[in-house]
Each structure stands twice: as structure tokens, then as C-alpha cells.
Amino acid sequence: MSTLIHQRVAEANAGINPRVVASVTSGWVVMGDVQMVRGYCLLLPDPVVPHLNALENESRGAFLSDMIGVGDALLAVTRAARINYEILGNLEPALHAHLFPRYNDEPAEWRTRPIWFYDWNAARAFDPEVDRPFMDELTAELRRRGIAK
Fold first, then answer.
1. pLDDT tens, position by position, for the chain (149 residues)?
2. Which of 1, 18, 82, 96 is least enclosed by beta carbons within 10 angstroms?
3. Cα(first)–Cα(last) distance of the chain, in Å?
4. What's the whole-model pTM score?
5. CATH node for 4-144
């Protein structure tokens, strides 16, 4: 099966995915297509598998460890209040983890709700020029922590 996740990982391997922040042990850290909140990223496994349970134990551990490490780096760079981690796979039946920095200055009516309640159509689209300084800062933090390759 070919999904958007397969396509994005193939583009990352070919060096043509502009959303790539860094390569990590389990795959790729990429920026979200829309920036619902500043710093929204995803962790894409390489190779792509259908779901977390399809990974062998060592690969599972690497993916989950990378996910937490990326979250730590996001907290440091964004100074967010917390990181929401989500592995769904409902629309794109391929493993990928969403990492959403959550901020204390989000509107009160949204702050404690899942990010999926936000108006995704109104969100700012990823822009390689606008997002490059953030991506560079996150890459540097991932390298400093020994997470990025």
C-alpha cells in the first residue's frame, strides 16, 4: 500500500522533502503540512510499516525513544507547556507520530482540547522559507542531544 507517509519517506530519502528537519535512528522528523501550533512535527518511520505493532521490539523501542527525544527537543526550542503525542493511522494507515507543542497562551476554549478540534483549514501552511529558522534550531537541538544523525 502506498500512502502519503510512504511518499514523504521516499522524498526524504531522495533529499527532496522540504519538510525534513532531521534523520533519526528510526526514520525522519518532519514539519507538519500545516502549523496548527508553532513547531508541529511528525516522526515518520523508515522503512514505513502499517502500525507500531508491526515493528519488532528493538525497532519499536527506537521509534518510541526517538519520539520522546524529539518531544524533549521541541520543548527546549519552543518553550511549550507540554507536548501532545499522537499515533493514530486512521486516515493514513502507515505508522507516524504527531508531536504537537501546546502553549499556555492558546485560546482558553482550545487549550485543554485535542488539537483536532482546531480549524485546520484556517491554519498556516508549512512554508520552507518562513519555517527554516525554526527547523535549523530544532535540528541543532536534536544534534546537541545526540538524536539526529
1. 699 999 999 999 999 999 999 999 999 999 999 999 999 999 999 999 999 999 999 999 999 999 999 999 999 999 999 999 999 988 889 999 999 999 999 988 888 888 888 889 999 999 999 999 999 999 999 999 999 99
2. 1
3. 28
4. 0.96
5. 3.30.428.10
